[in-house]
Amino acid sequence: MPIRLENVGIAVRDIEAAIAFFTDLGLTVLGRDTVSGEWADTAVGLDGNHARIAMLQTPDGEGRLELFEYLHPDAIETEPTRPNEIGMHRVAFSVDDIDRALEIAAGHGCYPLRGVATYGDVYRLTYVRGPSGIIVMLAQELDKG
């Protein structure tokens, strides 16, 4: 059976702030909507589901994020995820210039958890605490030459 990743869904407290963060990093908004009704309740498994959603896509057209801002039931605030917690861990992006990506993230008040690391001679990478506490990995492939 063929399978492919459709998108990664992330619930956020402020969809406009999350859209601004990800579009500044280079993603584009494919569409926006407000969803509710029996079909949404059934699909999500949540009665009275009502949410603002936005679908974003990476420049290569291969990766998509679906952002949700719940209007009903109320969103549940939790402590930000830590890298070693079981469950949804992070979303990762390859970037051409990690320093520029970090400047963009900082413009949104989002900073690395610790710093920028170099993995062998392969990548410079970091985990950034993004909007709504999302962990976003940024990785820049190092030149092979």
Estimated structural class: alpha/beta
How many β-strand runs?
8
Which band does the percent of strand residues land in?
Answer: 35-45%
Q: Which second-level CATH architecture of the largest domain applies? A: Roll
Can you identify the CATH class of the largest domain? Alpha Beta
The name of the CATH superfamily of the largest domain reads 2,3-Dihydroxybiphenyl 1,2-Dioxygenase, domain 1
The main pleated sheet reads as: 4 strands, mixed
Cα end-to-end separation: 40 Å
The overall pLDDT average reads 93
Put simply, the count of helices is: 3
Helix content: 10-25%
Count of folded domains: 2
CATH topology grouping of the largest domain: 2,3-Dihydroxybiphenyl 1,2-Dioxygenase, domain 1
Unreliable spans: none
What's this model, at a glance?
The protein has 145 residues and is an alpha/beta fold. It has three helices and eight strands, in the order βαβαβββαβββ.
Topology:
Layout: E1 8-11, H1 15-24, E2 28-36, H2 38-44, E3 50-57, E4 64-72, E5 91-94, H3 98-107, E6 117-119, E7 123-129, E8 135-141
Explain this structure.
The structure is a single chain. The chain is of the alpha/beta class. The chain folds into 2 domains: 8-72, 2,3-Dihydroxybiphenyl 1,2-Dioxygenase, domain 1 (Roll); 91-141, 2,3-Dihydroxybiphenyl 1,2-Dioxygenase, domain 1, CATH 3.10.180.10. It has 3 helices and 8 strands; from the N terminus they run βαβαβββαβββ. The chain has helices at 15-24, 38-44, 98-107, and strands at 8-11, 28-36, 50-57, 64-72, 91-94, 117-119, 123-129, 135-141. It has a 4-stranded mixed sheet, sandwiched between helices. A 4-stranded mixed sheet has the order 5-8-7-6, covered by helices on one side. The mean pLDDT is 93.
